[in-house]
Amino acid sequence: MDNNSINCSNIRELPEPSFLSCLKKEGHVLIYDAKVQCFSIEGNIDDKILQEWALHIRRHYVRDDELTDYVHVYEIDAKKHLREDCIPDIPQIRSGDFAEIIISDLIQFIEGYEVPRYKQHGREDKNKSEHGTDVIAYKVTNGSEANNNDELLAVEVKSRSSSPNLKGAIADAARDSLKDRSRIAMTLAYYANRALAAHDTRTSTELKRFLHASEHPFKETFAIGAVVGIKDAEHSLRDKSASDLSINHGQRVFIIHRTRLMDLIHSIYNRCVS
C-alpha cells in the first residue's frame, strides 16, 4: 500500500491492499448450480500488514483530509476522535462492516469491478450501519457513453465472524438478495449525492450512467457474500446444491473464511484508533 493521502475527492484511488496476499483461493469448494469463489484468510498475519489493513479500513469511515481538518480545527487528539466518533466498537457492527469492506476489496481488486466506497463513510452514529444494498459494483464498457453491456452488480453480504455457520450465512444472504431490486435505486442515489458533495467526480460521473435505467438499459446482476469464522468451508458445503441454500440457479457466491475470524477483526479495528 502506498503512502499517498486518500481524501474525499480521490477515495477511488484507494490502493490495492497488501492483505490480499493472505487470501488463498479454494477452487475445490463447490455448491452445485452456483458459481462459487471461495477464499481462506491464511496463516499468521504480521503487524505491518495489520497496520496497513487498519489504515485501509479507517479510510472507509473517515478520509485522510477529513481527519486532518477535524483535528486541526477542533484541536482534538486524532486517536480520541477516531475512538469516540468514527470507528465502531460494537462487535456486530465491526463484523458486518468488515465483511462488506473485504467483499468490496475482492470484487474490485480480484474480480475487476469498480466499487464506490460510501457505505461506511460519514456516519452520524459510528455504531449504526446505513440501509441499502450492501455492496454496489459495476463495469462500464465506455466511460463517455452508455452501453447495453454495462453491468451493475448488487451483492448481499452476511457476516458470521464468531460462528462456523457458513450454510446459514449463505442461505440468509440468498433470501435477502431478493430485496436488493428495490434497494438499488435508493443506494445509487445516496452514493451519487455523497460523491457529488465530496467532489469525487470519478464516482459521480460513473454513477450517472446507472441513474437512468429506463433511458439507458444495462445488465443487472446479483450475488451474495458470506464472511464466516470457519476453518473448513469445503466440509461445511459438501454435497450442497443451490436450491438447498435458497440460491438462484447460476448465482455467484463469494465466500471468505478463517477460524477465529472475530479475533482478527478486533485486532484490525483496535489498530484503527491507535
TrEMBL record:
<feature type="domain" description="Anti-bacteriophage protein A/HamA C-terminal">
    <location>
        <begin position="30"/>
        <end position="271"/>
    </location>
</feature>
<protein>
    <recommendedName>
        <fullName>Anti-bacteriophage protein A/HamA C-terminal domain-containing protein</fullName>
    </recommendedName>
</protein>
<dbReference type="Pfam" id="PF08878">
    <property type="entry name" value="HamA"/>
</dbReference>
<dbReference type="InterPro" id="IPR014976">
    <property type="entry name" value="AbpA_HamA_C"/>
</dbReference>
